[in-house]
Amino acid sequence: MKKCPKCESDNTCKLSQIYESSTLVVDTKTSSSGIGLSSRGNMGVGIGNSSTSGTIKSVMSLKCAPPEEPSHAKEGWSIFIVISILSLILFPSNVSIPIVVLSGAIIIGIFAYITKNEMEEYQEEYDTWEKQWICNRCGYIFIPK
Ligand SMILES: [Zn+2]
Question: How many CB atoms within 10 Å of residue 47?
């Protein structure tokens, strides 16, 4: 266990661990919510507690979620496909295959450059996320030294 640098609590956990385990907790809550609704009047306290902890965990999982993967590579490909199909439909006699291929290559080149930079940034963010811990007492997110 790593100590929280802010409040010195030992009650800390890796972000990646919380994210994985809280995803499971949310699933459990969803599958048992039917029981919770039908018997809420009779069993209010017990059901209420379990659903509350489920909600807190799912908020935690949002807070502990890894950075989002960039999706520009896919966009680049779909733009290229749409442009080539559109140009073939709109100007079937004017468009030659080399022009489509050339413009596609330029678009893909630009997107490959953007994607490469984004992937490097994403990789850095992901590495940081994997090293980060969260304090369960005060909620402070830190990287242990
Ligand atoms: Zn703390």
Answer: 19
